[in-house]
Amino acid sequence: MSTRDGLDWQRVQALIAAERADYAARNPESARLAGQAAQHLLFGVPMHWMNDWSTPFPLTVREASGARFRDADGHEYVDFCLGDTGAMFGHAPQPVAQAIARQSARGYTAMLPSEDAGPVAAELARRFGLPYWQFALSASDANRFVLRWLRAATGRSRVLVFNGCYHGTVDDVFVDLVNGVPAQRDSLLGQVHKLTDHTVVVEFNDLPALEAALAQGDIACVLAEPVMTNVGMVLPQQGYWEAAQQLIKQHGALLVIDETHTISSGPGGYARAHGMQPDALVVGKPVGGGIPCAVYGFTEELARRVEHAKRSAPPGHSGIGTTLSANMFAMAAMRANLEQVMTELAYQHMFALASQLADGLRDIIARHRLPWCVTQVGARTEFQFAATPPRNGSEAQAIMDGELEQAIHLYLLNRGLLITPFHNMLLVCPATTADDVARLLSAFSSFLADTIQIQI
């Protein structure tokens, strides 16, 4: 079944052309700034991903607060992208803003512990159930560091990931299954080492494939999101993680859970909410309220093994950590965000609104008789172009339709609503309101009414 079944594709294409023209007319200042920036910025933007939107030129943000931001032309938007999770708890949450304002007069970095370091680690231990923690500037770095620690602790070199996974820019994870065979992703630039020598990839939810890979006895760790989120959301099937954890332990490997996106599941992430027991855990982007930082934690037993590996190694740089890791600025932001923003009350509000959003999307899709589905993981919701949710990365990849996604995204953007550019993911934050959700649902329904083959 095509992802476009039920849609009048000629109408969709005409709509795209009209929406692009409308965007250009509405945003002359963003156009001017984009042209100016192109003189000195590679690809015309500070980071080339900023071109991955549906717009003919980048939208320039002037200010952002709570669930809203304003662009250079003065238009206000309700933000359901929230920096693709970096601002999951809202833009510039007041406790974080106050904490970094105080810290700005007290120093930024010293390569020494600040007074916030101990309390932050204690709060992380309380939330996630892992007693020992370290810090990085991004989840990419945190995952890199964890892989180094675990390879050193186990004496094993290979890492297992799931097809279609995302763990930042860690080289080891850019391996997919192509016609059932592990292969380095074609999109990875400048890679000179053969990644498949040390990375094993299997499909999510496939226990026999996982067991066969682990049985080789050379896997240091399984690095996984508890719910796949980057290729579209893929939920674990009933009983999958219970059985997978037993297999991982049975074959002497370790489990690393990357909660950078699935922290949407609750104050302790998906693993804590669902009774999982990882050996190590990583959280990036949102943990400091949008300030660059990340955390990773270990069980007691793994911490001892890691310490032994370090103390047994020759002196010199471990390849783990950077000078700015755990800087005073980031620690102040994390402490305020953990203690005052990422609260049980905030999550209750987010869960209620995400359920309102998911139910509303399902109702609209059903009324328009489209073979699409909706998946929700706490405060994170996504609609996908298939009648039933995908079971693995291959299925999720097969139902993605970049042109259709961009048509929907641009239509919403021109009506003051932003969703994530890479797929159809929507986040709500503590500042999102029921009216914001209703506004998005109305615009989504209007898009379908404008493009559907059979009018309802």
Structure description:
With 456 residues, the chain is an alpha/beta fold. It folds into two domains: 9-79 and 344-451, Aspartate Aminotransferase, domain 1; 94-341, 3-Layer(aba) Sandwich (Aspartate Aminotransferase, domain 2). The protein has 14 helices and 16 strands. The strands form four sheets. A seven-stranded mixed sheet has the order 4-12-11-10-9-5-8, sandwiched between helices. A four-stranded mixed sheet has the order 1-2-3-15. The protein has a three-stranded antiparallel sheet with strand order 13-14-16, covered by helices on one side. β13 (373-377) and β14 (380-384) form a beta hairpin. α1 crosses α13, α3 runs antiparallel to α10 and α4 crosses α10. It comes from Duganella alba. Its cofactor is pyridoxal 5'-phosphate. Belongs to the class-III pyridoxal-phosphate-dependent aminotransferase family.
The number of helical segments is 14
Shape: globular
**N to C succession of SSEs:** HHEEEHHEHEEEEHEHEHEEHHHEEHHEEH
Distance between the termini: 22 Å
Structural class: alpha/beta
Protein name: Aminotransferase class III-fold pyridoxal phosphate-dependent enzyme
Family: Belongs to the class-III pyridoxal-phosphate-dependent aminotransferase family.
GO molecular function: pyridoxal phosphate binding; transaminase activity
Keywords: Aminotransferase, Pyridoxal phosphate, Transferase
Notable features of this structure?
PyrdxlP-dep_Trfase_small, Aspartate Aminotransferase, domain 2, 4-stranded mixed β-sheet, 456 residues, pyridoxal phosphate, Aminotransferase class III-fold pyridoxal phosphate-dependent enzyme, alpha/beta, globular, 2 domains, 7-stranded mixed β-sheet, Aspartate Aminotransferase, domain 1
